Every structure is written in structure tokens, then in C-alpha cells.
Amino acid sequence: MTLAVTTFYAGLCALILIWLAFKVIGRRRGAKISLSDGGDEPLQRLTRAHSNAAEWMPVFLILLAGVESLEAPWFVLHLAALPFIIGRCLHGWHFATARTDFRFRVLGMHLTLWPLLALALGGIGHGFVSMF
User: Fold this and answer.
1) How confident is the model at residue 35 (pLDDT cuts 50, 70, 90)?
2) The CATH number of domain 4-126 is 3.40.630.30
3) Which residues, including other chains, have CB under 8 Å from residue 77's CB and lie 6 or more apart?
4) N or C: where does the chain have the smaller number of CB atoms within 10 Å of the terminal CB?
5) What residue segments make up the domains of the chain, in order of their start?
6) Measured between alpha carbons, how far is 92 from 104 in angstroms, rounded to an integer?
7) What is the pTM of this model?
8) Hey, is 79 helix, strand or coil?
């Protein structure tokens, strides 16, 4: 068994994390802050965006790998993973561009949480049935 779909989306998640890391690094350099956030609000926003992505992505990828390993159809995996990736991009974009309009953030949260919930419930159900 290969986890091709999970590996593909793990790569996309890594690219999002790298993009956000470069935003944090750029702000740190620009503000000459080497440790913590120095009270710099844009840096606080960027580090929070990076941290938020780093908090949600592992759980999602673990669930995606689990459901894929239980041989869920490929289209089901993509139906969960594609919105999640778009949500993570929109959420990060909100913080990276210092938007005061919360539409990207809210849409990003929805596109993160609903696919995660669907995979969690699907994983619980399919995992339970597969145990017996």
C-alpha cells in the first residue's frame, strides 16, 4: 500500500508552512527581531499564522493517511484534502497580508474544520467497521 494522496497533500502542507516561515523570517529581519516577537504586531500575526498551520496540519495528515490506508476511494480523499489545503492558504493569506476583512480567515477556518471533521467521523466509522 502506498499513501500517494497523503504524500501529495503533505507536500502541499509543507509548502504552505515554508511560505509562512519565509514571511516570519522576512518580518524578523525587517524589524531586527531575533527572539520572540519583540511586541511587533505584524510579527505576532505572522508567527500565529505559522503556528496555527503547524497545529492543524499534522492531525489532518494523520487522519488522511489513516483513511487512505483503510482504502477509502481516492475521490473521497481529495474531497477532504483539497478544501483543507485551500482553507490553510486562505487563512495564512489573511494573516500574511494584514487584512482587516475577516472573510479569508473565516472561510479558511471553515475549509479547515469541516474537512477535518468529515475525516475524523469517517475514520472513526470506517476504522470501527474494519476492526471486526
Assistant:
1) confident
2) no
3) 5, 6, 64, 67, 68
4) C
5) 4-126
6) 9
7) 0.91
8) helix
